[in-house]
Amino acid sequence: MAEVKGRVAVLSGDGIGPEVMDATLTVAEAIQNTHGFKIEWKQGLVGGAAIDAQGKALPAETVELCKSSTAVLFGSVGGPKWESLPPNEQPERAALLPLRKIFGLYANLRPAVLYPELAGGSPLRADRVAGGFDVLVVRELTGGLYFGQPKETVKKGAGERAVDTMVYETHEIERITEVAFRAAAGRKKRVTLVDKANVLETSLLWRKTVKAIAARHPAITLDFMYVDHAAMQLVRDPGRFDVLLCENLFGDILSDEAAAVTGSLGMLPSASLGQGSFGLYEPAGGSAPDIAGKGTANPIAQILSLAMMLEISFGHRAAADSIRAAVAGAIREGWRTGDIAAPGEKSVGTTAMAGEIADRVASRPGRS
Ligand code: IPM
Ligand code: MN
Q1: What CATH number has the domain bearing residue 193?
Q2: Is 52 one of the annotated active-site residues of the chain?
Q3: What is the pLDDT of residue 365?
Q4: Fewer CB within 10 Å of terminal CB in the chain, N or C?
Q5: Is 281 a catalytic residue?
Q6: Which SS3 state, helix, strand or coil, does residue 71 take?
Q7: Is residue 168 part of a domain?
Q8: How confident is the model at residue 368, as a pLDDT?
Q9: Phi and psi (nearest 5°) for 249?
Q10: 257 and 292 share a domain?
Q11: C-alpha angle with apex 322: 327 to 189, nearest 5 degrees?
Q12: pLDDT at residue 245 tops 50
């Protein structure tokens, strides 16, 4: 039995965050019992919840908790209540971006998988998703327009002048490219570099750097696609892609698009990783303030984020696989939350869905 111990910083945040997190912790309990390991789960404040309690979206205490943890299981932050704050103090910008920077989380993995049983929920025509699809967006997360300097707004004449700077250095491209190639090696062995090399200097550096790394990975097929074309291909024929390697902003946009075409945003996890095994794991879907507190949110994205965490930060592949098998089993056997139920199909709430998954984890470890 694998020796797994350590601490997880549990940052539930806002909106549906707390309710899907609570539900996910029941699955965490089940997986620990089944596989015989014990992790310490420690709650911390983040986002609007932290602003309300302590006046800051990312209190120092929370950063310290993360520093003393093996990984962060993150819920979601933001909501209408905090939208009138100055942009720099809003939960999304004041909590998520600093966490990425402080912990050097440069690699963002966003799998977008179409479950065959849920293909009817995809906004794409049935024949376009008939073969299902499984796309992994590998997004650079600590560079590009998000963090490049200068970044400012200054007075100019009667108006103002605003600047964001897109900047990349070779080493930043190399390390994320290695992540993408390693991921592709365990998948369909195809990497598509998404860029705008017909216009952007940074894209030329990306192409050059990625090509050099590709030479070290002969088993992986590499191709290049302009971001506008990639956005189009994602809705025409998503099945053609395996790993999409993207700079920060392109990856932000295309990962939402890839998620949306699955039709089940409530099912998609993500991982943000740095140099070591530390990582931050969060659902792709956001805080969904419209359904917060109703107990109807889909907990699966959070539960699959837990699985990614156990696999990547704790090295416990078997535990991750049994969670994924339990999710697939619950879906196959017809369990649905409202967001993934077909019209007329019966749906259950957050706790019941997590309960179904926890039961499968407990009674059928390693199988669905
Ligand atoms: C995401 C979000 C963030 C981003 C925002 C909230 C800053 O959209 O994680 O994709 O743009 O990276
Ligand atoms: Mn985004």
Answers
A1: 3.40.718.10
A2: no
A3: 53
A4: N
A5: no
A6: strand
A7: yes
A8: 45
A9: -70, -40
A10: no
A11: 85
A12: yes
Residue position matching structure tokens 């994924």: 324
Ligand 1 centre from 142 Cα, in Å? 12
**272 and 306 co-located in one domain:** yes
Which residues span the domain enclosing 94?
1-110+267-368
Check if 237 is active-site.
no
Residue 366's pLDDT band (cuts 50, 70, 90): low
Burial class (CB in 10 A: 0-12, 13-18, 19+), 286: buried
Task: Out of 243, 261, 279, pick the residue that ends a domain.
Answer: 261
Shortest-distance Cα residue to atom 12 of ligand 1:
252
> Which pLDDT score, from 0 to 100, does residue 367 have?
47
What percentage of the chain has pLDDT greater than the value 90? Answer: 92
115 within domain boundaries: no
Catalytic residue among 14, 106, 115, 146: 146
Q: Looking at the domain assignment, is residue 347 inside a domain?
A: yes
**Residues 251 and 361 both lie in one domain:** no
Q: Which residue, by CA, sits nearest to atom 4 of ligand 1?
A: 252
**Which of 195, 242, 252, 339 is labelled catalytic?**
252
Residue 72 lies in a domain: yes
Which sign, positive or negative, has the C-alpha torsion 156, 202, 256, 308? Answer: negative
Residue written as token pair 């966003």: 110
pTM score of the predicted model: 0.95
106 given a catalytic annotation: no
- Contact yes or no for 173/194 (Cβ under 8 A): no
Per annotation, catalytic residue among 52, 223, 228, 290 = 228
pLDDT tens figures, 328-338? 999 999 999 99
Tokens 């090295």 belong to 315
Domain count, the chain: 2
